[in-house]
Design brief:
Elements lengths: L3 E3 L8 E4 L6 E4 L5 E3 L17 H10 L2 H11 L1 H19 L7
Helix pairs in contact: 2-3
């Protein structure tokens, strides 16, 4: 039997069992709602969790230790952070680069 957490549905709040094999899957024993044990949204399988405050998480990721970075990457997906960091670098470059004159 897996860990027990609380069902995220406001009208329920009963115990939910976490799947021992798929650590992100949890299911409420009362309403049978299947949800992600990390983000508490509907179960999304192998797709990474969507953070509620991505800007704050990106800031944490940039200043994190290598171990913490790995934890964040495992939970949300490394590619998402690589794209976000590249986009932030692009936006910074755009903001400091003067516009080119048309010929």
């Amino acid at each position: 039997m897996g860990d027990v957490i609380v069902c995220p549905r406001v009208v329920c709040g009963n115990p939910a069992i976490c799947d021992a094999e798929r650590k992100t899957l949890a299911q409420c024993i009362a309403c049978r709602f299947a949800f992600c044990a990390f983000c508490h949204r509907s179960y999304h399988g192998i797709n990474p969790c969507l953070p509620k405050d991505f800007a704050k998480l990106l800031e944490e990721y940039e200043s994190a230790t290598p171990d913490r970075r790995q934890e964040i990457e495992e939970r949300y997906g490394k590619a998402m952070f690589e794209r976000a960091l590249q986009e932030a670098a692009n936006q910074k470059w755009i903001s400091v680069t003067p516009p080119q004159k048309k010929i």
